[in-house]
Amino acid sequence: MVSDENTKYQQYLALREKILNCRKCDLWRNRTNAVPGEGDLNSIIMFIGEAPGRQEDIEGRPFVGPAGKLLTSLLESIGLRRELVYITNVVKCRPPGNRDPKPIEISSCAPYLNAEIKIIRPKLIVTLGRHSSSYIFSLAGMSISGISKIRGSLRKIRLFDFDVLVLPTYHPAAALYNPRLKDALQEDFKKIYNIVSQISEGSKGLIRGTKGRQSSLDEFFN
């Protein structure tokens, strides 16, 4: 077990080094820092956002700006400790002006996200926003028409060589611009609590306290 953890950590360090020095697309020209994912490499839950923003670019860490503060608050509201989940983005460098990432930027960064997923091997992936959801479902040969139509709907898909649950929801940044989406985010995070609570012994030590009703995973599948 220790050997496996050491191997996983070494794989992560090597991947992080590649990300920090990446010049596969033009985003590197304007970045302050590339932003690898961070968190518990053995976590059962992985959050995938879109791309770094201004504060993330400055600090070189994912979700540390206003959207990150909201994400942390949502995690804490259901007793999830940020340090025991894994958080990353589809694109590892900030697009100028926080614009949407271009297809070429997503495809250039895709091998890094794929490698993160293979290292972490999460049991639950929470996709934050349209670009994250579109990419993850595309790996399973699925397409989506919009985040509003699928948010909060749990799916089980095959990624690489393992099965994983995927719960799409809004990106926290969207709720900062449109406060009406915050209720939907809170609702989806309550689902996350119930899902994680049902995932066998993997949830031990991940959730603090008891919040909300624990339910069978069956009720979340559509």
Write up this protein:
By secondary structure, the chain is of the alpha/beta class. It has one domain (2-220): Uracil-DNA Glycosylase, subunit E. Helices cover 42% and strands 13% of the residues. It is built from eight helices and six strands, in the order H-E-E-H-H-E-H-E-H-H-E-E-H-H. It has helices at residues 2-20, 54-59, 66-77, 103-120, 130-139, 147-150, 172-177, 180-198, and strands at 38-39, 45-49, 86-89, 124-128, 155-159, 162-169. A six-stranded mixed beta sheet has the order 1-3-2-4-6-5, with helices on both faces. Helix 1 (2-20) packs antiparallel against helix 4. The longest helix is centred in the N-terminal third of the chain and has 19 residues, at 2-20. The N and C termini lie far apart (36 Å). 39% of the residues are buried.
Give a brief description.
The chain has 222 residues and is of the alpha/beta class. The protein has helices at residues 2-20, 54-59, 66-77, 103-120, 130-139, 147-150, 172-177, 180-198; strands at 38-39, 45-49, 86-89, 124-128, 155-159, 162-169.
Secondary structure: helix percent: 40-55%
Helix/strand order, N-terminal first:
HEEHHEHEHHEEHH
Assembly type of the chains comes to: single chain
Strand content: 5-15%
Q: What is the number of helices?
A: 8
CATH superfamily: Uracil-DNA glycosylase-like domain
Distance between the first and last residues' Cα: 36 Å
Largest sheet report:
6 strands, mixed
